[in-house]
Amino acid sequence: MERPRLSPYLGGLLNFLIYAASFSSLIFVPLLCRDLGATPWEIGLIGTVYGAAYWISSLYFGWRSDVCGRVGFIRLGIICGTVAFTGQLLARDLVTLAVWRGLVGLALGMATAALVALVYETGGHMGTFGSYGSLGWVAGAVAGALLQDYRRLFLLSALLSGLALIFSAGLREAGSGARRPVPRPGEVMKRQARVYAAVFLRHLGAGGVWVLLPLYFAELGASPTWIGILWALNFAGQVPGMRLAERFDAQRIFRFGLLGSVAVFVAYALARNHMQLIPAQGLLAAAWSGLYVGALLLVLRAGVERGTASGGLVATLNLCEAVGPLWGGAVAEVWSYRAVMGVAAGLSLAGFLVYVLPRSAFRDQAVPADGATERNVAGPELPEGRSGLTHVRESSRVTQGKGGGGG
């Protein structure tokens, strides 16, 4: 039975709206924390609450979507996100802000892992799909630059999430029929252990940077408008970057993303004013595009439990978003923002070295160098990834589906 195909625009539209809603709130949360009297470490702690909730949610609900279906979790996550974004308007102190940020992370994790798997399974292109998420980040950054008001930005996030809920009515499952139990997330992630380990190290460094980056930009002389512009430069570059990245060998663009990240964090550490950050933001766009698209292709090709695989990747990114702010805030408080950038560069280099280690060091599966992969396709009676499977050789044109992180 032929699988239903998702509209080429619907998956991208939902990704755009979800990421625009997320980033409209995220970009100025550190500045709001500062206005509420938070220290750098406390700002990091609130980032940890958000990242930890996102981590747990994406890993668990990505796994559950392999068992129960994708669409229900996507819609439930969007509903919860709309409520949580609205709830941020009620935050009057650091504790209530942390609670609402945690609920935002829980909702986003629920929706995003399932959406990635659904788009992949319905014939979508990973790079194109991911580029719509980056375009959503651009919209969120531009909104932050123009509105410069926390309450308006939180309200905008809720409205965008509500709009995503309306459009999600057009979603359909990729298959029908009984779904068998799937392996535990840890078993699925072992198939590409080097990828997850390399992403973890790189993004552990990045997690310590992103939560403090608006403050670092301000220290280098950037106004709130320029902070928004610098973020937007990165995300705008990712829109064409991700579309280009999907044309290249997944392993090569993944390596490029790791090395490019090292160069970005070194450039941050050496910058003396905010204008010098402009080329670094362009390089960040290219590096993140290669890293993210490459990682998603590698893990999604490794098996049929794509909800678990994509959830594992999103969870890895958000585990780093949870832990990274703790070390980032501590290093900034004891030493400086520049020291945070230096540590992040070292962690990204460690991630690259882990990935190029001999395969015997990790229990993962090789991906063919020509970009082709074997994909499991369900027989006529059961949905994709279940019993009655046949193996079909895919061409290098990737059928794909997108998170994380700001790059």
Q: Can you walk me through this structure?
A:
This protein is mainly alpha-helical and 407 residues long. The chain has a single domain, classed as Growth Hormone, Chain: A, CATH 1.20.1250. It is built from 15 helices and 2 strands. It has a two-stranded antiparallel ribbon with strand order 1-2. Helix 1 (10-26) packs antiparallel against helix 7 (150-167) and helix 4 (71-87) packs antiparallel against helix 5 (94-121). It is globular and about 50 Å long. The two termini are 39 Å apart. The model is unreliable at 362-405 (pLDDT under 50).
H/E element sequence: HHHHHHHHHHHHHHHEE
Largest sheet: 2 strands, antiparallel
Global mean pLDDT: 78
Question: What gyration radius follows from the Cα positions, in whole Å?
Answer: 20 Å
CATH topology: Growth Hormone, Chain: A
State the end-to-end CA separation: 39 Å
Please, how many helices?
Answer: 15
**CATH H-level superfamily:** MFS general substrate transporter like domains
Share of residues in helices: 55-70%
The count of strands amounts to: 2
The best one-word shape is globular
The CATH architecture is: Up-down Bundle
| Low-confidence regions | 362-405
The top level CATH class name: Mainly Alpha
Order of strands across the main sheet: 1-2
Defining traits:
two-stranded antiparallel sheet; 407 residues; disordered C terminus; mainly alpha
